[in-house]
Amino acid sequence: MYQLHIANKNYSSWSLRPWVLMTELDIPFTEQLTPFSAGAVQTAFKAFSPTAKVPCLVDDNQVVWD
Fold it and tell me: What pLDDT shows up at residue 45?
């Protein structure tokens, strides 16, 4: 199953876009929210994204889209 790593949907329209698309197309996924925070964002995002950016779509521990 896909894991969609996003930041806060209220502040990141880029995170909201794939979430809306996958929801509307009934593509099964789990949402992994990593909120924006002062200073530690880069480190937190690096845990799942090679570019340390969101949104990031992961399937079977491999990045599909970053």
Answer: 85
Residues 6+ apart with CB under 8 A from 10: none
R_g of the chain, CA atoms, integer Å? 11
Domain count, the chain: 1
Its domain, for residue 33, covers: 2-65
Distance CA 16, CA 39 (A): 22
pTM score: 0.83
Residue pair 22/2 in contact (Cβ under 8 Å)? The answer is yes
Whether 42 contacts 52, CB under 8 Å: yes
Q: How many residues does this entry show for the chain?
A: 66
pLDDT (tens digit per residue) in 1-47: 899 999 888 877 888 999 999 999 999 999 999 887 766 667 788 88
